[in-house]
Amino acid sequence: MGGYIGNSVVGVEHPSKSALNATTGDFTGAVDIDGSITSSAGATITTADNNPQLTLESTDADANFGPVLKMHRNSSSPADSDFLGEIQFQGENDAGEAITYAQMFGRTVDVSDSTEDGRIATKIMIAGTAQNVLDIKSNEIVINDDSVDLDFRVEGNGNANALFVQGSDDFIGIGTGTPKKKIHIQDTTSDGIILLDRNGTTTDHQICFAHNYQSGSQSGGNYFGIGVDGSENKLVFAFDANSQASLSADAKMVLDSSGNLNINQTSSTGGKLNVSNASGTWAVTLVDAAENANYVEFRDSSGNQHGYLKAEGAGLALNVGSAGGIDFSATSNVSGMTSELLDDYEEGTWTPTFDTGYPSGDPEEVVSNAAYTKIGNTVVAVARIQARNDSTGMQLGGLPFNSNGDQSGGTIAHDTHTARKERIFNGNDHINWEYSSTSSSLANQYFMIVYRTNS
What we know:
Radius of gyration: 51 Å
Largest sheet: 6 strands, mixed
Distance between the termini: 129 Å
Number of helices: 0
Mean pLDDT: 82
Structural class: mainly beta
Low-confidence stretches: 1-15, 357-363
Strand order of the largest sheet: 12-13-14-15-16-17
Shape: rod-shaped
């Protein structure tokens, strides 16, 4: 072995090995050591440049590890949770103090033979305190174990916030660095889609909402489930008060692959909306909080309305549209039936007019209580007429609808005599009648006619 102490060469021969024994020494050149170095005290390497202060180099050409830096705590009484080696990254603060800004250390967790467990942790300085930011244990990997206000972010290829955990409120963002709720998903390049895929298996998969989940079988837990059943062709809404809902046994509403919506039943009974109610209460209830009218509308694919149901106040109205009606085909029929469709109903008032040309005379008239009711193509018209019938006939016009043929029928009651003929002609809106006698006094005549119309 050779080297320099000061400017002198030192070489000492030993019968069995080369050795250098000195209390102190300054080496100003390179020192070549053939063999191992064992030291019982610390060593300090100081340089005034940015070159590496320590280099470990292995020239071994095999595939095994090399070089190897080993830190071995050779304790005579190893115990669980002992601290092992530590790497400290130190620097000065502005007060000239040496600060450990970052450190990594190992610890034992279990030193029992054959069941040993270890741990390695990384701490960094945050606001003047060393905080555990990464802790790798035998049973978990923990980020931010000291629970400081520290965001966690995973960057993808093109998205800086592929996964983001907001330390201030524990919100989780996917595709966003500013999550607004517990889980916030944002995709600005395509549709935001959450995919639940059981890869063809027949097991239910669902999203569960619970008041108190516990182990999934908590009394009063109120478990709602939304998912696809095992047959993979129905979206099911299920509920169970005391355990996680089964999509098959606890289904409350089912949307099948044909677009049929089934409430309180699992399959369609023929309609697009199928509601079953075995309890005897209302199956469907419409409520308007503003106490306005409630509508159920019927429209075609172009948006044209063909009828509606309207509930307003204490009543219910049915509008069947211009080509619709109420179909009574479910009832039994008599011979000669031609239609079971009731296509119109209306009622209102009408204004009678008088024509004195039939057969002759000049009555004085006063009209009141003129009203009508139309059911299908049948019209019932009534009125009270005060007239001085100094002729034997009268023509009353202004009927609300024209007749669909020559018709006669109806009644006209008079305070002093009764009409003997009543007739309404095809396509006209007036009726003619004659009296058995004349009267010069003003008298009440109560008029009613029933006739048919094409209107």
